[in-house]
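Lab notebook, bench 4. The sequencing result for the construct came back, and we need a structural model before the next group meeting so we can plan mutations. Quick request posted to the team channel:

Model the 3D structure of this chain.
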Amino acid sequence: MTDRPIALDEYPIHQAPLSMRQVATGDRNAYDRCIFHVLDHTGRALLIAGLGVYPNTGVIDAYATLRLGDQLHAVRASDALTDDRLALTVGPLALTVEEPLHRIRLTCAPDPADPDGLSCDLTWTGSFPTVWEPHHTQHRAGRLILEGRRFVQAGTCTGTIRAAGEELTVTEGEWTGTRDRSWGVRPIPGEDGGRAAAEAPTEGFHWIWCPVRFDDRFVMVIIQEDADGHRTLNEALLVRNGTPDRQLGWPHADITYRPGTRHPERAVLHLTDPARTPLALTAEILTSSPLALGAGYPPADDWQHGTWQGRDWVDRRSYDLSDPGAHPRAAFGVTDHAARFTLEGRTGYGIFEHGSFGRHDPSGFTGYHDVAAAPQDRPEAGR
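Done. Here's the predicted structure in token form:
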């Protein structure tokens, strides 16, 4: 096929002497994607949606999942990437940028064969400016396996969601929205781990990603730690309209896990304001959605991002979450928890995204199959 310019090449937006069809790396793991969270303040529903482009594998895909009661409804779609990079649509799923960095429309068309299946038409509106997350890099056995640039934002959402014969009206004040936009290099399934996997296995990984919207402020906390507790990614930021962003120190987390699991029920994120005054951001989990079910994050065994599924692939399914043991692989993937937060007498809502796998010395976990004991049996568990 002749490599001709595409429409985006008309604009002065190039970052490398390449067509906008190409990215400035030959790494097959190059990606460019987003994720949105829309959560009901009562904890009844949590919708997660995202879209990704994988230019070096020629794939575009998207998904939407809805946790409603004990059911997780999912729609996933994948197709061949085209030269029209402004067409953010895959099968029934579409994302329309109505006002950059402020207002996005998210739609999932209903299935004609199943009108009771998951569909939605939502307008996501930012309440605060977008803010950068720390430049994220991760190495394994000396090799760079992840390098990502991301921004995050909190806002409101309006519209409708339909599933299981119900229609949910999404209204400002009763629902909160958060979103994350990222691009760079991130592992796509299908690459042999080789020597790195054999000789440098990951002993442990501990992750917290926590965007929280209050009426007058947005708080973002990120913690990534290795097995020994070494901090490899760190952020604690307060954002308000019209005032400079304020750093909130070096965050520490005390997490209360459900006994017999690493499923958080409550957490306290210990922050510090510029005057060194301690601040406690408390999270109460309302409902949870494992990203390995429906949303395509590892270690999903039915579909993962960036994998070629053929042209015009669409998959709709539901997962029963009433039995915690029915999906054992989900426990080894990140889970997004809708949560109610408190900070200095204020109440806010957002996402407590958490994954703790393998050894984590600060939490007292010794390996991949170690879980939290009852508090009286293991006082150090549930920090």
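The longest strand covers residues 143-163.
Will bring this to the meeting.
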